[in-house]
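TA notes, week 10

Several of you asked for a full example with nothing omitted. So below is the full record: structure tokens for the whole chain, then the designed sequence directly under it. When grading your own attempts, check the secondary structure regions first.
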């Protein structure tokens, strides 16, 4: 992973490990799936993407966009992640089949250059705001989540990805 660019992977894992989700909600890390995510945009009614984007005043800024808003920004193709995400969304929007309603919750990264299974301190500090925004957007769509009684910290999740074992990852969602 490229440092802060791995934010979506950590966020999806954090949500899954710390919240009880309705049975009709699937959480998956699609960070490296690229265009193979396209069927999800056609098969699901609603998709929430969590990613990094170059949008925001400063590193750690959290944003929420519809697909239309995201594509209209124009200046968001500054990382390979953004380019691939927007290309996939543009292609899906031209398909004849109905496309899911898609929202994007994103955070502006601080540093995406080093290959490192970690997040910068500014992004770690802003991470609770990202989680709050994800929960808020889900609630807007009548998807209620409940906090689990025991919590897994962001640091523990990062450590699990930095030092993977078969026991630490549930591979059902790959």
């Amino acid at each position: 992973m490229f440092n802060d660019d791995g934010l979506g992977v950590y966020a999806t894992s954090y949500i899954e490990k710390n919240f009880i989700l309705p049975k009709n909600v699937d959480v998956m890390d699609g960070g490296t799936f690229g265009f193979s995510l396209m069927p999800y945009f056609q098969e699901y009614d609603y998709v929430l993407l969590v990613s990094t984007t170059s949008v925001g005043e400063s590193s750690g800024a959290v944003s929420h966009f519809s697909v239309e808003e995201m594509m209209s920004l124009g200046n968001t193709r500054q990382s390979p992640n953004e380019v691939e995400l927007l290309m996939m969304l543009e292609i899906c929007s031209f398909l004849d089949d109905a496309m899911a309603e898609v929202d994007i919750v994103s955070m502006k990264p601080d540093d995406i250059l080093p290959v490192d299974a970690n997040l910068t301190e500014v992004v770690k500090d802003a991470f609770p705001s990202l989680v709050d925004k994800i929960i808020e957007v889900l609630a807007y769509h009548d998807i209620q989540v409940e906090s689990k009684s025991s919590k897994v910290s962001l640091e523990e999740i990062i450590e699990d990805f930095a030092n993977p074992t078969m026991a630490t990852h549930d591979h059902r969602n790959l």
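Residues 3 and 116 are 5 Å apart (CA to CA). Use that as a sanity check on your answer.
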